[in-house]
Amino acid sequence: MARETLPLASAVTPSCLSPCGSRFRRAIARTRRWHAVLRRSSDQESKKEELRIFDPVTHARTVCKVATRQCTVTGYCARISFRPTPAGSLDDEKRYLTPESVGSDVIDGFNVVGTHETTTINAGMVGNSQPLVTTREFWYFPELQVNLSVTRRDPREGTQVIHLVDLSRTEPDPAMFQVPAGFVVEDSRKSAKAEN
Hints:
Strand order of the largest sheet: 3-4-5-6-7-14
Distance between the termini: 44 Å
Helix content: under 10%
Largest sheet: 6 strands, mixed
Shape: globular
Number of strands: 14
Structural class: mainly beta
Radius of gyration: 19 Å
Number of domains: 2
């Protein structure tokens, strides 16, 4: 992999491309997300690589890999409420997080709450020669428990902006929360119960 010189003369070796996705949610909190890899070059098309379905009713997390046409089902418990990470050291003092409220706003007619997080990664933790600073600003919609907008700035990967668009409060088709036709499903919850 190529090394890049970053601001402040820090250097890192990039390790991955950024994921993106589309999300659908039902009133009973089932969530479906398509994840794709964004290509840095404009002549390369982003492609869907993985489908994730989260179902707190059946306590199932289903991850389907497009390349292999295989899905794995594992246990899942939905988060009850949003709790921001408090300021302080993370990962045995490898990183330091500083969150700050940026107030309230309205996005597409929805009342959202903004938070700006600055994370400083200590020198030598990810191949960086000096401390590395990343930021994340997100606008959270409490009613649906989802971020409507997220902006990430990382000198290793650039700026990534994600906006939830075409938000509809109508119920999506229940078929959207089923495994796609032609995929093989392995339910690891059953094998875990059999071992106990």
